[in-house]
Design a protein that fits this description.
- The protein is mostly beta strands and 117 residues long.
- It is built from 1 helix and 11 strands.
- Strands 2, 4, 5, 6, 9, 10 and 11 form a 7-stranded mixed beta sheet that branches. Strands 1-3-8-7 form a 4-stranded antiparallel beta sheet, with no helix packed on it.
């Protein structure tokens, strides 16, 4: 099973920033769409942001203007810069890789993001 290795996350106060990273094997990174879903307790998993191999991006309405997804082809890594964090951003964030945001091939292990009020 191909592993996506996530890092980042943690505890931050409202208005703070965090950066998530997700590294993938080059065979995956070079062709697939990558990004993050998140899941808060008692809620369904939701798409946060995604970026494809052409660097086209899409974001959930709730994070537009606050989160930025990017990719570093030299490092086979995708980043999610999260600014102006809110308590409602608290969730486990899961990195993914797939043909599209609905055709997921691989998941990361998940990383907890907690925003205190």
């Amino acid at each position: 099973q191909v592993q996506l290795v996530e890092s980042g996350g943690g505890l931050v106060q409202t208005g703070g920033s965090l950066r998530l990273s997700c590294a993938a094997p080059r065979s995956i990174f070079s062709i697939y769409t990558m990004g993050w879903y998140r899941q808060a307790p008692g809620k369904q998993r939701e798409l946060v942001a995604a970026i494809n191999s052409a660097r086209s991006t899409n974001y959930a309405d709730s994070v537009k203007g606050r989160f930025t997804i990017s990719r570093d082809n030299a490092k086979n890594t995708v980043y999610l810069q999260m600014n102006s964090l809110k308590p409602e951003d608290t969730a486990v964030y899961y990195c993914f890789a797939g043909a599209t945001v609905n055709m997921i091939r691989n998941w990361g292990q998940g990383t907890q993001v907690t925003v205190s009020s």
